[in-house]
Amino acid sequence: MTEIVVFTGTSLSWKEAGLLLDADYRPPVKRNDINILLDKGGPDIIGIIDGIFFDRAAVGHRALFLKMSRILSLTT
């Protein structure tokens, strides 16, 4: 089964999102959230709808690149 994690909650509630897709919904993404997922092996798909930008550190681009490189290495 495909494991999906989606970060949302501000512009789209978990309840509304759950009607569209069966996934593990989490609060808006912030710094280190992606790294924590990857340290645990990571899901197959990560969706980012909402993120933290003003009151906490935003998600880092390196974490996103790391996840994308892992996905690409699995498909080649």
Give an account of the 3D structure.
The chain has 76 residues and is an alpha/beta fold. It has one domain. Helices cover 38% and strands 14% of the residues. Strands 2-1-3 form a 3-stranded parallel β-sheet, covered by helices on one side. Strand 1, helix 1 and strand 2 form a beta-alpha-beta unit. The longest helix has 15 residues. The two termini are 21 Å apart. The mean pLDDT is 83.
The helix fraction, in percent, is 25-40%
Instruction: Kindly provide the radius of gyration, computed on alpha-carbon positions and rounded to a whole number of angstroms.
Output: 13 Å
Indicate the low-confidence ranges by residue numbers.
none
Basic shape: flat
Separate helix tally: 3
Q: What is the number of beta strands?
A: 3
Proportion of strand residues: 5-15%
Counted up, domains total 1
Main sheet attributes: strand count, strand direction, barrel closure: 3 strands, parallel
Which whole number gives the mean pLDDT?
A: 83
Q: Termini, distance in Å? A: 21 Å
Provide the structure class. Answer: alpha/beta
Helix and strand pattern: EHEHEH
Q: What's the gist of this structure?
A:
This protein is of the alpha/beta class.
Could you give the topology of this structure?
Layout: E1 4-7, H1 14-20, E2 24-26, H2 33-39, E3 45-48, H3 61-75
Parallel strand pairs: 1-2, 1-3
Supply database-style keywords:
single chain
